[in-house]
């Protein structure tokens, strides 16, 4: 068997960080090489496996230079400002990167695209196999129902989520726009309040719900006269995102540069 892939987990004390650590610990093809979190994080200096009752030999650090030394791939589920700093360091050390963080600006996405000329990156707002399939189905549905149908993207997440609409909802909106032969920025409607007037044809609407511990629900509605099609995905555990991200890390093992998404990882293109 080849040497296990040396993985660094960023945001290791977060909700996704936990799921990723569990995923790495239970995969013989992967080895935990580094664990990163903010300087003020309470787990700093402790063994990254402590919360799972195991000794990994890897301490949680905030110093990216320490964490990335001799690493193969960084898996990042944090916040955009952290991801941008990690991206710069990954380029410096030629470490591949899986970016699962959401909420990036257009400019930040352009920086990620440019960085992929130097290092291999998988960037996807949703790493689950089911959502990756849903993206394809939505594009196909929008292409077929491209006249006389109104498209709305509805999502619900837990009360702690800080960005809206979710990165996945935006990605589904992009897929729908692609199916319609449009650019999402020209047809998205992110908010409605008061006397909005009738719905304009060709727009893609978004609705956001937040509450409780919902891991992630997404529905794309294509509503016509006399019928509507609803395409839904419901995540019941973060393990689905973590397993997808770690599968993406293995996919990058043989890539030197380039920007990929989960459709590449799953061979759905
Ligand atoms: P969380 O708040 O539980 O964890 C975030 C982690 O990042 C924490 O460990 C926190 O300390 C760390 N962090 C925050 N700001 C930082 C900074 N400035 N520098 C360094 N570390 C910092 O959040 P979560 O639920 O784990 O989600 C993390 C991100 O992943 C969010 O953007 C979320 O939308 C995204 N997400 C993506 C997918 C996907 O499949 N792509 C799935 C779930 C969540």
From TrEMBL:
Q: Where is the Dihydrodipicolinate reductase N-terminal domain?
A: 6-127
Protein's name according to its UniProt entry? 4-hydroxy-tetrahydrodipicolinate reductase
Its chief place of residence is cytoplasm
Catalysed reaction, written as an equation: (S)-2,3,4,5-tetrahydrodipicolinate + NADP(+) + H2O = (2S,4S)-4-hydroxy-2,3,4,5-tetrahydrodipicolinate + NADPH + H(+); (S)-2,3,4,5-tetrahydrodipicolinate + NAD(+) + H2O = (2S,4S)-4-hydroxy-2,3,4,5-tetrahydrodipicolinate + NADH + H(+)
Q: Name one GO molecular function term.
A: NADP binding
Q: How does it assemble?
A: Homotetramer.
Tell whether NADP is among the UniProt keywords: yes
Instruction: Kindly identify the residues recorded as the active site.
Output: 157, 161
Q: Which gene encodes it?
A: dapB
**GO BP annotation list:** diaminopimelate biosynthetic process; lysine biosynthetic process via diaminopimelate
Question: What keywords are assigned to this protein?
Answer: Amino-acid biosynthesis, Cytoplasm, Diaminopimelate biosynthesis, Lysine biosynthesis, NAD, NADP, Oxidoreductase
Which function does this protein serve? Catalyzes the conversion of 4-hydroxy-tetrahydrodipicolinate (HTPA) to tetrahydrodipicolinate.
